[in-house]
Amino acid sequence: MYQIKGYTAALLVVFLFCSMVIPLAASTPTVLRPGMRGAEVESLQSALRKVGFPLKVDGIYGPETTKAVQELQRRQGLQVDGLAGPATRKALDELLNTENLTHVVARGECLSVIAQRYDVPLKTLMEANGLVSSKIIVGQKLTIPRAVPVQSQPSRIDYTVQGKDTLYAIARRFNTTVSELLRYNHLPNPDRLQIGQKITVPLRTTRLPLIWPVRGRISSGYGWRIHPVYRRKHFHGGIDIAVPSGTPVRAAASGTVSRTGWMGGGGLVVVIDHGGGITTWYLHNSRILVRKGQRVRAGDVIARSGATGVVTGPHVDFRIKVNDRTVDPMTWLP
Hints:
By secondary structure, this protein is α+β, with helices and mostly antiparallel strands. The chain has 4 domains: 39-98, Orthogonal Bundle (Muramoyl-pentapeptide Carboxypeptidase, domain 1), CATH 1.10.101.10; 101-144, Roll (Membrane-bound Lytic Murein Transglycosylase D, Chain A), CATH 3.10.350; 156-202, LysM domain (Membrane-bound Lytic Murein Transglycosylase D, Chain A, Roll); 217-331, Glucose Permease (Domain IIA) (Distorted Sandwich). Helix content is 28%, strand content 24%. It has 8 helices and 16 strands. The chain has helices at residues 2-27, 39-50, 63-76, 86-98, 111-117, 122-128, 167-173, 178-184; strands spanning 101-104, 141-144, 156-160, 198-202, 217-220, 223-226, 233-236, 239-242, 248-250, 255-262, 268-273, 278-288, 295-296, 301-305, 315-322, 325-327. Strands 5, 8, 9, 10, 11, 12, 13, 14, 15 and 16 form a 10-stranded antiparallel sheet that branches. Strand 11 (268-273) and strand 12 (278-288) form a beta hairpin. The chain is globular and about 60 Å long.
């Protein structure tokens, strides 16, 4: 009887140990490597294809996928081992968010469907690729602009209610008032919004008073240009201000730091949220001096300029976004 109890106790100890170990192992990010198959590999291939690698999306981590991963690692200054670990996948995600994409036309695709897929106006897509008609061919490479210029701010937008949204929170986010939301929407119960519910949000287009983040020569303006490194046409969503490395970079307006850190081709980046859907972006810094969540005032030094990311020399790439769309900083700066 004693031996049975001891055996049972031993099993219990092993079970408890495994219970502690298994969740730890499960939380470890998967490192994708040659020979693997499945949905995760397919997702990796799809992302690589979007940033310009002409891969077949088949879910098989073969020689072509390995070669593409190695080239990505080489471009991003990572260890070149052909393994898609956390650092490589993070760099790929950031590249997707900051750089123009390249789409390789597949059989059965048409230009309007591609434009809809990437949420880019058809006219903008045609301009980005120098197209005079919507005719495209299989295998053709299309530049997909990630930063779409705001020609004129809409007077209102349609918003989909998300979890924990309230009218007050929505009004504050878009710099409007609850009374304005009620005036534009026939809400049966304003105190109980439903997830997925569509409401109209009137926008205020008052421009934010800004100061220059640095003083220097404008080396590249806002709009279409030939990328100085990749030598292909793309839309530049900001202005480049040439300054010596280490120059103090100042907040263009008061707000809350919403993002800091490495962002693919943008290098070390600081993003400040000014409310009302307006954010300012400061790219290619050599050093970041603020943290996420920190309140800053106009003129506060938030970083030191540099040449991190994909650049040809030290400068500050300054951007303004209104409701996630870029605007020309020169029309906002004094």
